[in-house]
Amino acid sequence: MLSAGRMMGSRLSYDSLPPDAERLVREAFEGGQPFSSGFSELLGYPTLTLGVPITQGSRVAGALLIHDAVAGMDEAAAQGQKLLLYAGAGAMALSALLAMALSLNFTRPIRRMKTVAGQLAQGDYSARTGISRKDEFGQLAQSIDCLSLRLQEAQTASEQAELQRRDFLAKISHELRTPVTVLRGSLEALRDGVVNEPGMMRSYHEQMLKETEGLQRLVNDLMELTRLQNTDFPIERTSIALDEVFRDALRSAGQLAQAKNIAITERLPAQAVPFMGDYARLRQMLLIVLDNAVKFSPENSTIYAIMDTGSLAITDEGPGIAPEDLPRLFERFHQSPSSAGKGGSGLGLAIAKQIALRHDIGIALDSEQGKGTTVWFTWG
Length: 380
Hints:
alpha+beta, Heat Shock Protein 90, 8 helices, 380 residues, single chain, 5-stranded mixed beta sheet, 3-stranded antiparallel beta sheet
């Protein structure tokens, strides 16, 4: 039941209520919570009316109509819309900034890697990306930097190989020029009759034979070194006693030392030194070193040959080698100033080093001017 009451300071009757009031009351009595804006005209301003049932126990005893002005809600809705617009604009601006940041984060390393790739394609192998990240871009940049480093190392190795090739050609040309010039001069003198005395002709023939033997020795050494540097060239490894190989080489070197009255002092291990290698090649390696020791030792001096189960040392009492010449002694055609006039092609130690490398033997040289030279071999 709905009774009239005071609203906005006026007395209202039941008949003055809007038609929608009866629906609100009925639905409220049924337990619902209906609402309506039909009281706006009666109250004189936009109003939203809510019907609320009043219960006693389980029975609805009455209905309460609650009125509230809509103007404040409209203002709140307007403020909400405005706030929503501001929030949307801010979100769009923030999204744009984030998109730009992410775009730069993706595109900057890609552009850098593209630039470095172009530099590598043009032959600038010193280019680096300089990118350090812990993601896929960082891994790709690291791979590019690794590639550029390998290319730079390969370029450096290629340049060094080219320098060595030119140096080799220059040295072999120098080695060939002298005997060829002597041979040509001797042949022209014999052909033109400049030399016609039997004794002089014999001297010319002996000189030509000597130069020919030198050329043959040079060619043989070159062929030997080329074969040893070829990894496909077979080394016949068999079970041998390395001390026996050394004794064999010492016997041959002893014959060379007799001409200069040079004594060879030996100290070899009592037990055999087993080794897997090529007997002939190892003997050749040791003879090269022993021959050099005899060649550069003064007369009436001593060569010391000391061997144990893991190393071998050959020491002479020669003039020694300057420190600046030591690093290059195993290079092809390199000869120290002290070897001038001693003969040889300058390939002996290079051949000995290749034989040692093919047998996994370490070879080193120690020398002091005026105190002789020691060649070390180590294995195992």
